[in-house]
Structure formats: C-alpha cells, structure tokens
Amino acid sequence: MLVCPQCLFENPSHHKFCQKCGYSLTQRVCGECGSTVSLSVLDCPDCGTRTGTVWLAVVSRLPVECEHDILDRVENPSSSPERDRLGGAIAEISEETQTQTDKIQAAWVKSEPELTPDQMASLSENGVEIDSVASDQIWGSEAFDASEIPVCDALDPDASDDSNDSVELKSDASCLPGLDKGMYLDENQRYQLIEPLETLKPDETVTVEVLDTQPLEMSPLEAAQLNLLSSSEKMDTFVIAAAQAYFILQSQFQNHFPKLKDAWKSDLYTVVLLENYSNFPMLLEKFKDSQTTPQQILSGFQQMADLWEPLEEFQCRQSLLELTNILVSPTFPHEICLQKLYRDFRADTVSLSDLGKAWKTLIQQSQRTLFGSLTQLLRDLNEGEIKTITQLQNQLAEVEQELNSSSTETPVIPISSPTRIQEDVDDDITDVPTGGSVAPTIPRLSQLLHLEAVGATDIGRRRQRNEDSFGVQTTIHEQQTPQGRVVEAKGLYILCDGMGGHASGEVASQLAVDTLKQYFQSQLTGELPTSEMIKNAIIQANTTIYEANQEAVRSGVGRMGTTLVMAIVAENQVAIAHVGDSRLYRLTSRGIEQITVDHEVGQREIQRGVSPDVAYARPDAYQLTQALGPRDRNFVKPDIQFLEVQEDTVFILASDGLTDNDLLEIYYATHLDPLLNPKTDLDAGVNQLIELANEHNGHDNITIIAIRMLVSPSRK
C-alpha cells in the first residue's frame, strides 16, 4: 500500500500516481532547485541536495553463546526440530518457516515431471539423459529468469550461491561478512546502504544510514500495528525483542525517542530501523551556545533525570551517559532526544553517580559556570550522596526555584494599556501613566504583575469568507493602599473555527463565542470556575448551535459546527478547555509546548498505541472526532485543564490556519520567543504571525489570541 503524501489516500503498491488526487507516487520535487527527483535516489542529480528518505539502522550480531546454540543444532540435527530443514526434507516444512532456498528446492520437488515408460524409451533412443530433461524442463531458459529470484538477505548466512543443500555455520566473524555501499540490507531490496557495513563480531552493534527506496510503502511493522487494532495479539507477535524498548518508550515519550520504522531478525543478527537524528545538534553544543540560559541548562538536566527511571526498566541507562547520543530537537529546541538505546553492561554497573559524572563533563566541556546550589548538587551526585531518582528530581526542583527567585531586577512593563484589543475591555480597567513617581506594585500571593492580551483574525488567501470568531475580555482592578498599589486581573479568551465547508460555519463560531461570553459574564468572579461549570458552559454553547441546526432542518454535511479553544485567567491561575483541533500553546523561557491534543482520528489512533506515521497515513486522519453543534450534548466531551503560571508566560490560542505544517514549532525562535520580552509590542507580534501563516499556509482562515502574563520573579 502506498500512502499519498499529498492527500494521504491509500493506493495499491503498483500505482505510479495517486488515484484520488493524481499526485506522483514515484517522484518528488527538490526543495532546493525544483527538479523532479525519483523517490528511490539519495540526492538530487542536478544540485546534489539530499532528497531521499534516510533511516538509521541499528545492526546487532548475537552473542557467541547464541551462535553456539545454532552450531549445536547444525552439528547435532537429531536434537533440533530444524533437522529436516537442514537435511533437505523440505516438503514437510511449513510455509511460515521456509527460507527462500527452501521454497526454491520445494518447487523443484513439486515440479519434477514423471515420465512414462514410452517417453523414457524414446528419449533413450535419441541419446538424451533422463536427468537432464528434468532439469531443463524446470530450470531451462524458457521457464526461468534469474531476475525473478528474490534477492536473499545480504546478511543472512543461509544466503549463498553454493548449490550444496547443507548450511555451514562458523563461530568466527567471517560468518557475517561486511557489505559495500549500495548493497541492500533486507531481502526485499528496499533499504540501501549509504555507507559500508563492516564485518560484525559476536555481540557487536553498529549503526549505519540506509536509504529507503520505497518511502511511501508501509513497512511490515507498521502494517502489523494496524492489524493489532482489530485483534488480541500481543506486542511480542509483531515486534522483535531488540525493538520492543524503542516501541514502548517512543509511545510514552514521543519527543525524546526516535520513531521505530521497522525491525527484523535472522539467525545471527537483528536490524532495527529508526528515525534518523543525524542532523540534530548535540546537547553539548547547545550548552556551549552563549544564548542558552541557566534555566535551559537546568531543564536539560531535569529531562535526563526524568528519563532515568523509564530507561532503567529496560536496562538502557547507559543511553544517557553517552554524550554524543544526547541531542536537541530542532522542532522542540528545549527538549532533549536520544538517537539510540545503549544497553547497560550489567544492572549493577550503572548508578546515579555516573549520571553526575556525565553532567560534570557537560559543564566542563561547554565551559559554563555552575550557578546557585547546582554546584553542591553535582558534588553530592558524584559522591553518591543522592541515592534515589526522586531525591535527585526534588533537589533539581529546588535549584529551579532558587534560580527563578534570584532575579531582583524590576521588569520594564508597558502599562500604558493593559490590553490592546479594542472590543470587550471592561470599563473599570485603570491605566497607569508611565514615567514620574509611580507607587510600587504589590502583587498578591499569586505574584501576577501584568496581564495583556491581543486577538486578531484574517480570511487567508484562498477562502471566500472568514468562518473564525474570537472574543477577548481582560479585566484589571487596581486599589491604592498605604503600602502601594494592588493589582487584580482576570480574563476570558475564546477562539472558534467554524467547520470548513459546512453551511454557516461563521454563524456557528459566533454563536459559540456569544454563548460562552454571556454564560461567564455572571459566573466569572475573582477565582477560576470549576471544571463542572466550564463543562456546563460548553454544553450550553453546543446546545445553542445544535438547536439552530434542528430548527433549520439541516442534516448531514449541511449541519454547521465549530471547534473551540478557551482560556480563563484569574491571577496566576489558568483554566483551559477545548473541543476539536484549535490549539493552545504555552511559551516560556524553556520553549514552546502544545497543551491541547487535537480531537481528530489521527490522535485517537496514537492514543490507542499506533505510531504517528501509521495513524496519519489514514485518509481520514484529520477528520474531527468532536465539534460543537453537529450532534447533541451526549457526543461532546471537552478536555479541561488547570495550570499555575510560575514564570513569565505567553499563551497562544490559534486556529489551524496558523498551526498547520508545524509553523509555530518551526518559527518559534524568530516569531514566538521575542513575545516573552515585556518590551515587545504584542500587537506587532500577532500581526507578524498572521503574515507568517499567510506566507507558508494561507489555505484557511487564520485566528490568534496571544496572552502575556508577567509574574514575579520575572525575566531580566
């Protein structure tokens, strides 16, 4: 099955063009020079840009004791059920266990012609040997073409040009020869070596890059995962032991471990194909960058500590001690990721003190100066004073608190206008003039110093009407006291994306915004509403649209609907709710984080354990599983979360016109990170994001709400 990269339609493997959209299934366009390039080649022939799909192959030869077991089965065939296979009784072998050689030999047995006595006499009179006739009838040029034999696995010791039926296994390295560049790693001739593969010794593991010459074809492992959804099979039935740790860890920590593409096993070796991180920068290089803040360095240590226990379960803690193995994701620039797993030599040989030594090496090689109590923490960790991972995580949290509270510099905050949006700003907002002698602000226990919000929408470059709606309400109360000025702030922020292609999508989105604003006008006080109150509000918005649909006697695709993402702020507390695929992101000094999870088929499959690539290969992957309006209240289950803001934060609410194609993750450094600076004009920043979306997306309406919350202690 070939999955079209343009429309995700599933095509038969022999098709050259997508039968739905006509997109090429054999070629792609070079992003550098625009030439048409075959999917099966590594580089563009015109400009040399790498265009091929490259995976990292982890090839491991089994330990010598496992090879001795194989030798024993060969030398003492009576002790093994493999005797008949190795002895030549191929006709009795089950189809599932036959090798390619077995199948060819079995075809010989089944195809051997039986000659009648008259035929034999006639042939003998003409001087023809009977044995040669049988051979010619089976292997003659008329019935046989060498190109029709599937290429055997290049690493399989059973793959040999020798016609001898017996298989000779040796215990030395010559049993597993090296492979030249350009040879295939698998018997189906799909994964081609980009670099030579050296001869492997017993229990040795190497990594090599391979070109996927059939990148649109679903791998056997991916296909098996799809079959698993409709069966009760266990993971052991479709994931070999060498790949199970990758499979489980990647499903639990998607941003920290590479995607598992495929895996297979032979008598003497295993191959695991992984997402290739070779272009990712190392964490050490990130630490050397003068722009990397102490908070970001501490975050790297915290992530390594958080991964220690999951890796311990698979005896792979060594993966965190190989510094060249710890990389930084370009998509999530403040998240570490591991290229591969390194097995612990023995469970008792790796300890937390080894992690401390690795951290010390990172600090020394990056030539960074230790800060705060991290110096003492590293000393205790190296000397074995920190016994458990929980103890380490708690001490790292204390260092983080100390680091955040160490700033005593008062931030420069543009307070000429608490919010820049022109609609729905309450009349009791008090503007404080800039300059002169302004009384010091005394924050409440929440430590919120400033709340500012901007909303904007744009029709995009292809739509005829704008089906998005949004609402922004920010309220700031000010009270003068002998000790200074006390500021209280709250806000309601709503974004809705009318169902694209549905009737009256703009009506549905505006109905949702108006209903929610009206509901919280009486319910929203100085504290956050409860989860039940938020759910009731959303159900009420759904009912309003649903009843409008019923009254208009709309049905099927004619029923209007909308997505919803909403944030409610009270001091430094934030409630978040969403239905559909409109998103909320949190931006802090540690990077950008998507808080909401899209309500769509692809994400539903991922939550069921399917890999992201397989889940989003479905043609209906982006179909919504929830929306407001098309169905009654029983089918609406909003996700509701509560967050506490402990550092300067910008929340981004956005429709998919902005978030499609990972636009925010890709342009995080240039378009989002500056918004954390109190001096940055939030209005201008939002407008730049809309321009960015029109430039790189533009296929849909674009709506964004940016909420900036400054707290004490704040960024310098």
Write the layout of secondary structure elements.
Layout: E1 2-3, E2 10-11, E3 27-29, E4 36-38, E5 53-61, H1 64-75, H2 83-87, H3 100-111, H4 117-125, H5 130-139, E6 191-193, E7 205-212, H6 220-228, H7 241-252, E8 260-265, E9 269-275, H8 283-288, H9 294-313, E10 326-328, E11 336-338, H10 352-366, H11 374-382, H12 389-405, E12 441-442, E13 448-458, E14 468-481, E15 484-497, H13 505-523, H14 531-551, E16 564-570, E17 573-579, E18 583-588, E19 591-594, H15 601-607, H16 612-615, E20 639-644, E21 649-654, H17 656-659, H18 663-666, H19 668-672, H20 682-696, E22 702-711
Parallel strand pairs: 12-15
Antiparallel strand pairs: 1-2, 3-4, 5-7, 5-9, 6-7, 8-9, 10-11, 13-22, 14-15, 15-16, 16-17, 17-20, 18-19, 18-21, 21-22
Helix pairs in contact: 9-12, 10-11, 13-14
Structure description:
By secondary structure, this protein is α+β, with helices and mostly antiparallel strands. It folds into four domains: 1-51, no CATH class; 54-85 and 173-276, no CATH class; 283-405; 441-597 and 628-711, PPM-type phosphatase domain (Phosphatase 2c, domain 1, 4-Layer Sandwich), CATH 3.60.40. The chain contains 20 helices and 22 strands. Strands 12, 14, 15, 16, 17 and 20 form a six-stranded mixed beta sheet that branches. A five-stranded antiparallel beta sheet has the order 6-7-5-9-8. Strands 13-22-21-18-19 form a five-stranded antiparallel beta sheet. The longest helix has 21 residues, at 531-551. Residues 77-114, 128-176 and 407-446 have low confidence and may be disordered.
